[in-house]
Amino acid sequence: MKGNEAIAHAAIRYGVDGYFGYPITPQSEVLETLEALMPWETTGMTVLQAESEVASINMVYGGAATGKAVMTSSSSPGISLMQEGMSYIAASELPALVINVMRGGPGLGTIHPSQSDYFQATKGGGHGDYHYIVLAPATVQEMADFVGLGFDLAFKYRTPALLLADGIVGQMMEKVVLPPQRPRRTPEQIKEQCPWAATGGSAGRKPNIITSLELDSAQMEKNNERFQRTYRLIEQNEVRYQEYFTDDAEYLLVAFGSIARICLKAIEDARARGIKIGLLRPITLWPYPYEAIARMADRVKGILVVELNAGQMIEDVRLAVEGRVPVRHYGRMGGIVPNPAEILDSFESQFNL
Amino acid sequence: MKKEIVAAGFGGQGVLSMGKILAYAGLMDDLEVTWMPSYGPEQRGGTANVTVVLSDQPISSPVLDTYDTAVILNQQSLDKFESKIKPGGVLIYDPYGIHRKPTRTDITIYPVEAMEASIELKNAKTYNMIILGALLKVNPVVDIESVMRGLKKALPERHHHLLPANREAIMRGMELVKE
Fold first, then answer.
1. Cβ of residue A212 closer than 8 Å to a chain B Cβ
2. What's the pLDDT score for residue B155?
3. Which one of A319, B88, B94, B179 is least enclosed by Cβ atoms within 10 Å?
4. Are both A146 and A248 inside the same structural domain?
5. Cβ–Cβ of A172/B61 closer than 8 Å?
6. Is A325 near chain B, with CB under 8 Å?
7. Which of B49, B31, B32 is nearest to B40 (CA)?
8. Which residues of chain B lie closer than 8 angstroms to A253, CB-CB?
9. Shortest CA distance from A344: residue in chain B
10. Nearest CB to B61; choose among A26, A171, A340
11. A172 and B36 in contact by Cβ < 8 A?
12. Residue contact B39–A340, C-beta within 8 A
């Protein structure tokens, strides 16, 4: 099935309580598949086509405040519209899942694949010091798996998660093994798992108030310090990445999402010609695998970062490498997807091979 | 075993669906598959293409620069993909509407008069299945029964009465391939 369809199936099977979204290419199949599967008749999951992306994210905000597992999905311009709500959700320490199947920008841009929302996803996007846990799927299988992983992490840390995919992995079809069907949590289970949530029935206890507003600066600083402690904990525990052919690599490619797979093919072709290249694929884009890249920097002669943008993740690679080896970039924009040969050509010309 | 196939033509000729049925058939045969479409407005009349990879090993890239087999249904696609077929590879094309014929000599070229055949069969909508039949004759990557099961999965149930017509089209496509 398609990556977008896998997201819809995985959401129902995880026991998600609500999906709120507004159609936009290249991820409209998420909402379409949910509507076709009609989970409100089976698991009781709510699926709603909202009037806009702004409405969707605020429905997610409201649902998350009650401890429900809620999500939305969109593509780049729609995600930009959601940034205010995304900041509020982070500031209110709520678990939620946002999915961005990226298309080329800026502006309305193109419907074709891109990775140009890396900065927005990993460095904020909305206002204030906050982070989403950012997962970058490279396969249709990971599109399905990261729905569950995203929710698990979001609930574990009370920090929203962002699944940062692109038009390639959203639109392509592959074999996928779907997770088993889980029942949605009961109201009692939600109360137990989320004692902070606005679940009603507060007689006999202090009411839970979910807000991002705090006019007392001293308290607001304390809130921020609490957010930062959570972020440090996530950085310690949740860095995920995958290495390919790195054991004997003389050069390293760094790429995320579906582009990592095109790089892998380029590496297979290069190795057939005796050029030893390895690949490091960050799976979490925040927290970022700085240490893994730093370790590789001590062993290789150069690093090429391949992205569908003008050079965004390369900044994190350079932070990790700290100038020890040359770090170059190959990027395509506007919805153009490079093929393995183009990546290899760029690699060879940039490292004079 | 690994087959890297591109199919390209006008939007509406059914290249994406043909690729999808091929991918489903691969799935039924327990192969790893990727199906990577060009998506967007070209589905409604521009040039559309789809890359299908079938392999008994995990597949790295769904995006390729060269192909084992190209299935070409219009001139623009021929111009775009003829040079991207691997030496020793296969080009299958429908000569209908092709005014500049392929010129490569290091690949095997099969002209398949599928448009004419679909008119003879009085079922223009099975055009892409004629093409698929030709592809399977040249490149028996998947079992024909798997294709039929793939078709059954790809078609909504209300269209299942069309399965025999599709089988006939596939068989016709196989006959059209001349050694």
1. no
2. 84
3. B179
4. no
5. no
6. no
7. B49
8. none
9. B65
10. A340
11. yes
12. no
Examine the pLDDT at A204 and tell me if it is beyond 90: no
Q: How far is B47 from chain A (nearest CA, A)?
A: 15
Smallest Cβ distance to A173: which of B23, B61, B65? B23
ipTM of the complex: 0.87
Task: Classify strands A241-244 and A277-282 as parallel, antiparallel or unpaired.
Answer: antiparallel
Instruction: Provide the pLDDT for residue B178.
Output: 81
Confidence band for A214, pLDDT divided at 50, 70 and 90: very high
Q: How many domains does chain A have?
A: 2
**Domains, in order of start, for chain B:** 2-176 (3.40.920.10)
Residues of A in contact with B40 (CB under 8 A): 25-26, 111-112
Domain range for residue A332? 242-350
pLDDT tens, residue by residue, A36-82: 999 999 999 999 999 999 999 999 999 999 999 999 999 999 999 99
Mean pLDDT of A26-41: 97
Its sign, for the CA torsion A106, A112, A115, A121, is positive
Question: Is the four-CA dihedral A26, B60, A137, A289 of positive or negative sign?
Answer: negative
Q: Is the pLDDT of residue A235 over 70?
A: yes
CB–CB of A235/A283 below 8 Å?
Answer: no
Distances (CA, A) of A135 to A42, A124, A256, B62, B172: 28, 15, 10, 20, 48
User: Domain with A136 in it: what CATH number?
Assistant: 3.40.50.970
Which of B27, B36, B60 is facing A265, going by the closest CB pair? B60
pLDDT in tens, A242-287: 999 999 999 999 999 999 999 999 999 999 999 999 999 999 999 9
Contact A261 B60 (CB under 8 A): yes
pLDDT for B45: 65
Nearest-Å Rg of the Cα atoms of chain B is 15
Whether A330 and A347 have beta carbons less than 8 Å apart is answered as yes
Q: Please return the burial class of B41, using the count of CB atoms within 10 Å of its CB with bins 0-12, 13-18 and 19+.
A: exposed
Average pLDDT of chain A to the nearest whole number: 97
Helix (H) or strand (E) holding B55: strand B47-55
For residue A288, being part of any structural domain is answered with yes
Per CB-CB distance under 8 Å, the chain B contacts of A112 are 40
Q: Which residues of B touch A (CB under 8 A)?
A: 20, 23, 27, 32-37, 39-40, 59-66
List chain A residues with CB under 8 Å of B64.
265, 339-340
* Any domain includes A345: yes
Pick out chain B residues at pLDDT < 70.
39-45, 179
| pLDDT attached to residue B43 | 61
